[in-house]
Amino acid sequence: MESAAWGTPVVAAAAMVMCVTAVFITMTVVFRPRQRAIPLERRRPNGHPELSVFSRVTESTVSAVDGALGASGGLYSPAALYNAGLKTKPADFTVLVLVATLVLGIVGTLLTNLLLGIVLAAITPLLAKIMLAFLTDKRRSKFDAQLSDTIQMLIGGLRVGHSMMRSIDAAAKEADAPTSEELARIVNETRIGKDSHQAIEESAARMRSEDFKWIAQAIQINREVGGDLAGVLEEVAGTIRERSEIKGQIKSLSAEGKMSAYVLMGLPVGVAIAFSFINPGYLNVFVEDVRGIAMLVGSLLMFALGGFWLSRIVKVRF
Question: Please, which of 19, 49, 175, 197 could form a disulfide with 179 given CB 3.0 to 4.6 Å?
Fold first, then answer.
Protein backbone atom coordinates (compact mmCIF):
# COMPACT_ATOMS: atom_id res chain seq x y z
CA MET A 1 0.00 0.00 0.00
CA GLU A 2 2.80 2.39 0.85
CA SER A 3 4.60 1.70 -2.44
CA ALA A 4 1.40 2.24 -4.40
CA ALA A 5 0.76 5.53 -2.59
CA TRP A 6 4.32 6.63 -3.26
CA GLY A 7 4.15 5.65 -6.93
CA THR A 8 1.05 7.72 -7.62
CA PRO A 9 2.77 11.16 -7.33
CA VAL A 10 5.69 9.94 -9.41
CA VAL A 11 3.39 8.77 -12.16
CA ALA A 12 1.49 12.05 -12.03
CA ALA A 13 4.69 14.07 -12.26
CA ALA A 14 5.94 11.97 -15.16
CA ALA A 15 2.62 12.42 -16.95
CA MET A 16 2.78 16.17 -16.39
CA VAL A 17 6.32 16.35 -17.82
CA MET A 18 5.26 14.33 -20.85
CA CYS A 19 2.26 16.62 -21.43
CA VAL A 20 4.41 19.75 -21.23
CA THR A 21 6.95 18.20 -23.59
CA ALA A 22 4.22 17.27 -26.04
CA VAL A 23 2.77 20.79 -25.98
CA PHE A 24 6.23 22.28 -26.49
CA ILE A 25 6.98 19.99 -29.44
CA THR A 26 3.59 20.76 -30.97
CA MET A 27 4.05 24.52 -30.68
CA THR A 28 7.66 24.55 -31.93
CA VAL A 29 7.39 21.99 -34.70
CA VAL A 30 3.79 21.79 -35.93
CA PHE A 31 2.67 25.38 -35.51
CA ARG A 32 6.09 26.97 -36.11
CA PRO A 33 5.90 29.73 -38.76
CA ARG A 34 7.56 28.48 -41.87
CA GLN A 35 10.28 30.47 -43.63
CA ARG A 36 9.69 31.12 -47.28
CA ALA A 37 12.36 30.13 -49.74
CA ILE A 38 12.46 33.64 -51.26
CA PRO A 39 13.20 36.62 -48.97
CA LEU A 40 10.65 39.40 -48.59
CA GLU A 41 12.84 42.00 -50.29
CA ARG A 42 12.98 39.78 -53.41
CA ARG A 43 9.27 38.95 -53.39
CA ARG A 44 8.37 42.62 -52.96
CA PRO A 45 11.24 44.65 -54.46
CA ASN A 46 9.31 47.93 -54.36
CA GLY A 47 8.09 47.51 -50.82
CA HIS A 48 9.80 49.18 -47.87
CA PRO A 49 9.80 47.58 -44.41
CA GLU A 50 7.70 49.44 -41.90
CA LEU A 51 9.90 51.48 -39.58
CA SER A 52 9.42 51.53 -35.85
CA VAL A 53 8.52 54.69 -33.97
CA PHE A 54 12.10 55.02 -32.72
CA SER A 55 13.48 54.69 -36.27
CA ARG A 56 11.07 57.30 -37.61
CA VAL A 57 11.94 59.73 -34.82
CA THR A 58 15.66 59.15 -35.41
CA GLU A 59 15.41 59.71 -39.15
CA SER A 60 13.32 62.86 -38.66
CA THR A 61 15.82 64.25 -36.16
CA VAL A 62 18.79 63.50 -38.41
CA SER A 63 17.03 65.06 -41.40
CA ALA A 64 16.21 68.20 -39.42
CA VAL A 65 19.79 68.51 -38.15
CA ASP A 66 21.13 67.91 -41.66
CA GLY A 67 18.96 70.69 -43.02
CA ALA A 68 20.07 73.05 -40.25
CA LEU A 69 23.78 72.31 -40.71
CA GLY A 70 23.82 72.55 -44.50
CA ALA A 71 26.80 71.54 -46.58
CA SER A 72 29.35 72.84 -44.08
CA GLY A 73 28.48 70.23 -41.45
CA GLY A 74 28.74 72.66 -38.53
CA LEU A 75 31.28 71.84 -35.84
CA TYR A 76 31.91 68.41 -37.31
CA SER A 77 32.56 68.94 -40.99
CA PRO A 78 32.80 66.09 -43.52
CA ALA A 79 36.53 66.78 -43.90
CA ALA A 80 37.10 66.49 -40.13
CA LEU A 81 35.21 63.20 -39.96
CA TYR A 82 37.04 61.83 -43.01
CA ASN A 83 40.44 62.81 -41.62
CA ALA A 84 39.53 61.04 -38.38
CA GLY A 85 38.66 57.88 -40.32
CA LEU A 86 34.95 57.97 -39.40
CA LYS A 87 32.66 56.92 -42.23
CA THR A 88 29.59 58.80 -41.01
CA LYS A 89 27.67 61.92 -41.95
CA PRO A 90 28.00 65.18 -39.99
CA ALA A 91 24.29 65.13 -39.12
CA ASP A 92 24.51 61.62 -37.65
CA PHE A 93 27.58 62.50 -35.60
CA THR A 94 26.02 65.77 -34.42
CA VAL A 95 22.88 63.98 -33.26
CA LEU A 96 25.04 61.45 -31.42
CA VAL A 97 26.92 64.27 -29.66
CA LEU A 98 23.65 66.01 -28.72
CA VAL A 99 22.24 62.81 -27.24
CA ALA A 100 25.46 62.21 -25.30
CA THR A 101 25.33 65.82 -24.03
CA LEU A 102 21.76 65.40 -22.79
CA VAL A 103 22.41 62.01 -21.17
CA LEU A 104 25.61 63.08 -19.41
CA GLY A 105 23.98 66.28 -18.18
CA ILE A 106 21.02 64.42 -16.69
CA VAL A 107 23.14 61.65 -15.19
CA GLY A 108 25.60 64.11 -13.68
CA THR A 109 22.79 66.16 -12.16
CA LEU A 110 21.00 63.13 -10.69
CA LEU A 111 24.12 61.47 -9.30
CA THR A 112 25.86 64.56 -7.91
CA ASN A 113 24.59 68.10 -8.35
CA LEU A 114 23.54 70.62 -10.95
CA LEU A 115 27.06 72.05 -11.33
CA LEU A 116 28.61 68.78 -12.44
CA GLY A 117 25.66 68.14 -14.77
CA ILE A 118 26.14 71.50 -16.45
CA VAL A 119 29.90 70.97 -16.70
CA LEU A 120 29.50 67.51 -18.24
CA ALA A 121 26.92 68.78 -20.71
CA ALA A 122 29.12 71.75 -21.64
CA ILE A 123 32.31 69.78 -22.21
CA THR A 124 30.73 66.93 -24.19
CA PRO A 125 30.97 68.74 -27.59
CA LEU A 126 34.54 69.75 -26.70
CA LEU A 127 35.38 66.15 -25.83
CA ALA A 128 33.96 65.09 -29.20
CA LYS A 129 36.28 67.58 -30.94
CA ILE A 130 39.21 66.32 -28.88
CA MET A 131 38.34 62.76 -29.84
CA LEU A 132 38.27 63.70 -33.54
CA ALA A 133 41.63 65.44 -33.19
CA PHE A 134 43.09 62.39 -31.44
CA LEU A 135 41.79 60.03 -34.14
CA THR A 136 43.09 62.36 -36.85
CA ASP A 137 46.57 62.50 -35.32
CA LYS A 138 46.58 58.73 -34.90
CA ARG A 139 45.55 58.24 -38.53
CA ARG A 140 48.23 60.64 -39.77
CA SER A 141 50.89 58.97 -37.65
CA LYS A 142 49.89 55.59 -39.05
CA PHE A 143 50.07 57.01 -42.57
CA ASP A 144 53.60 58.29 -41.95
CA ALA A 145 54.63 54.93 -40.49
CA GLN A 146 53.40 53.16 -43.63
CA LEU A 147 55.07 55.59 -46.02
CA SER A 148 58.31 53.64 -46.41
CA ASP A 149 56.43 50.52 -47.49
CA THR A 150 54.25 52.64 -49.76
CA ILE A 151 57.28 54.05 -51.59
CA GLN A 152 58.71 50.56 -52.03
CA MET A 153 55.44 49.41 -53.61
CA LEU A 154 55.47 52.41 -55.94
CA ILE A 155 59.09 51.73 -56.90
CA GLY A 156 58.27 48.07 -57.54
CA GLY A 157 55.39 49.04 -59.83
CA LEU A 158 57.57 51.45 -61.77
CA ARG A 159 60.36 48.85 -62.11
CA VAL A 160 58.03 46.39 -63.84
CA GLY A 161 56.90 49.02 -66.34
CA HIS A 162 53.68 50.38 -64.88
CA SER A 163 52.79 54.04 -65.08
CA MET A 164 52.74 56.19 -61.96
CA MET A 165 48.96 56.13 -61.59
CA ARG A 166 48.85 52.39 -62.24
CA SER A 167 51.48 51.90 -59.54
CA ILE A 168 49.46 54.05 -57.12
CA ASP A 169 46.36 51.99 -57.92
CA ALA A 170 48.21 48.74 -57.24
CA ALA A 171 49.64 50.12 -53.99
CA ALA A 172 46.14 51.21 -52.91
CA LYS A 173 44.92 47.62 -53.28
CA GLU A 174 47.84 46.11 -51.37
CA ALA A 175 48.41 48.68 -48.61
CA ASP A 176 46.61 48.92 -45.28
CA ALA A 177 44.40 51.78 -44.13
CA PRO A 178 44.79 54.74 -44.08
CA THR A 179 47.32 54.57 -46.94
CA SER A 180 44.95 52.47 -49.03
CA GLU A 181 42.15 55.00 -48.52
CA GLU A 182 44.27 57.99 -49.50
CA LEU A 183 45.80 56.32 -52.56
CA ALA A 184 42.40 55.07 -53.70
CA ARG A 185 41.03 58.61 -53.36
CA ILE A 186 43.92 59.93 -55.47
CA VAL A 187 43.13 57.40 -58.20
CA ASN A 188 39.40 58.12 -58.13
CA GLU A 189 39.90 61.89 -58.25
CA THR A 190 42.28 61.50 -61.19
CA ARG A 191 39.75 59.36 -63.04
CA ILE A 192 37.09 62.05 -62.80
CA GLY A 193 39.38 64.72 -64.26
CA LYS A 194 41.51 66.17 -61.47
CA ASP A 195 45.20 66.65 -62.14
CA SER A 196 47.25 63.86 -60.56
CA HIS A 197 49.78 66.28 -59.03
CA GLN A 198 46.99 68.31 -57.43
CA ALA A 199 45.34 65.15 -56.05
CA ILE A 200 48.62 64.00 -54.48
CA GLU A 201 49.30 67.48 -53.08
CA GLU A 202 45.85 67.61 -51.49
CA SER A 203 46.38 64.16 -49.96
CA ALA A 204 49.70 65.33 -48.49
CA ALA A 205 47.94 68.40 -47.08
CA ARG A 206 45.18 66.27 -45.52
CA MET A 207 47.74 63.99 -43.92
CA ARG A 208 50.09 66.90 -43.10
CA SER A 209 52.92 64.74 -44.38
CA GLU A 210 56.01 66.58 -45.50
CA ASP A 211 57.49 63.30 -46.72
CA PHE A 212 54.52 62.55 -48.97
CA LYS A 213 54.73 66.09 -50.28
CA TRP A 214 58.29 65.35 -51.37
CA ILE A 215 56.98 62.37 -53.32
CA ALA A 216 54.48 64.64 -55.05
CA GLN A 217 57.21 67.09 -55.96
CA ALA A 218 59.44 64.28 -57.29
CA ILE A 219 56.58 63.01 -59.46
CA GLN A 220 55.86 66.50 -60.78
CA ILE A 221 59.54 67.18 -61.59
CA ASN A 222 59.83 63.85 -63.35
CA ARG A 223 56.73 64.59 -65.39
CA GLU A 224 58.21 67.91 -66.53
CA VAL A 225 61.84 66.94 -67.21
CA GLY A 226 61.71 63.14 -67.47
CA GLY A 227 64.26 60.68 -66.08
CA ASP A 228 64.28 57.61 -63.89
CA LEU A 229 61.45 58.19 -61.43
CA ALA A 230 62.12 54.92 -59.61
CA GLY A 231 65.70 56.00 -58.86
CA VAL A 232 64.51 59.38 -57.61
CA LEU A 233 61.95 57.73 -55.34
CA GLU A 234 64.67 55.45 -53.95
CA GLU A 235 66.67 58.53 -52.92
CA VAL A 236 63.54 60.04 -51.37
CA ALA A 237 62.88 56.75 -49.54
CA GLY A 238 66.34 56.85 -47.98
CA THR A 239 65.77 60.41 -46.76
CA ILE A 240 62.36 59.47 -45.35
CA ARG A 241 63.84 56.54 -43.43
CA GLU A 242 66.43 58.82 -41.84
CA ARG A 243 63.76 61.34 -40.89
CA SER A 244 61.64 58.54 -39.40
CA GLU A 245 64.53 57.52 -37.15
CA ILE A 246 64.92 61.10 -35.95
CA LYS A 247 61.17 61.36 -35.32
CA GLY A 248 61.28 58.20 -33.21
CA GLN A 249 64.07 59.60 -31.08
CA ILE A 250 62.21 62.87 -30.59
CA LYS A 251 59.01 61.04 -29.57
CA SER A 252 60.87 59.00 -27.00
CA LEU A 253 62.51 62.11 -25.53
CA SER A 254 59.25 64.08 -25.36
CA ALA A 255 57.12 61.22 -23.99
CA GLU A 256 57.81 62.20 -20.37
CA GLY A 257 56.77 65.80 -21.00
CA LYS A 258 53.54 64.68 -22.66
CA MET A 259 52.67 62.41 -19.75
CA SER A 260 53.31 65.28 -17.32
CA ALA A 261 51.00 67.49 -19.36
CA TYR A 262 48.23 64.86 -19.31
CA VAL A 263 48.53 64.48 -15.52
CA LEU A 264 48.53 68.23 -14.88
CA MET A 265 45.50 68.74 -17.14
CA GLY A 266 43.54 65.84 -15.72
CA LEU A 267 44.24 66.46 -12.04
CA PRO A 268 41.89 69.48 -11.51
CA VAL A 269 39.07 67.76 -13.34
CA GLY A 270 39.56 64.54 -11.41
CA VAL A 271 39.61 66.36 -8.06
CA ALA A 272 36.41 68.25 -8.93
CA ILE A 273 34.62 65.03 -9.90
CA ALA A 274 35.83 63.29 -6.75
CA PHE A 275 34.56 66.11 -4.51
CA SER A 276 31.22 66.06 -6.35
CA PHE A 277 30.74 62.41 -5.44
CA ILE A 278 32.13 62.65 -1.90
CA ASN A 279 30.25 65.84 -0.95
CA PRO A 280 27.69 66.83 -3.62
CA GLY A 281 27.01 70.27 -2.14
CA TYR A 282 30.64 71.25 -1.64
CA LEU A 283 31.05 72.92 -5.06
CA ASN A 284 27.68 74.71 -5.14
CA VAL A 285 29.41 77.97 -4.20
CA PHE A 286 30.83 78.14 -7.73
CA VAL A 287 27.32 78.51 -9.23
CA GLU A 288 25.42 80.21 -6.42
CA ASP A 289 27.78 83.04 -5.44
CA VAL A 290 29.07 85.78 -7.74
CA ARG A 291 32.59 85.44 -6.43
CA GLY A 292 32.47 81.69 -7.00
CA ILE A 293 31.29 82.18 -10.59
CA ALA A 294 34.10 84.68 -11.21
CA MET A 295 36.64 82.23 -9.77
CA LEU A 296 35.23 79.43 -11.93
CA VAL A 297 35.46 81.52 -15.10
CA GLY A 298 38.99 82.63 -14.25
CA SER A 299 40.11 79.09 -13.51
CA LEU A 300 38.66 77.83 -16.81
CA LEU A 301 40.54 80.54 -18.70
CA MET A 302 43.80 79.73 -16.93
CA PHE A 303 43.14 76.02 -17.49
CA ALA A 304 42.75 76.58 -21.25
CA LEU A 305 45.81 78.84 -21.38
CA GLY A 306 47.93 76.34 -19.43
CA GLY A 307 46.79 73.49 -21.67
CA PHE A 308 47.72 75.42 -24.79
CA TRP A 309 51.11 76.33 -23.32
CA LEU A 310 51.84 72.72 -22.36
CA SER A 311 50.85 71.50 -25.81
CA ARG A 312 53.29 73.93 -27.42
CA ILE A 313 56.11 72.86 -25.08
CA VAL A 314 55.85 69.12 -25.73
CA LYS A 315 55.22 69.44 -29.47
CA VAL A 316 58.49 69.42 -31.42
CA ARG A 317 58.47 70.36 -35.08
CA PHE A 318 61.37 70.09 -37.48
Answer: 175
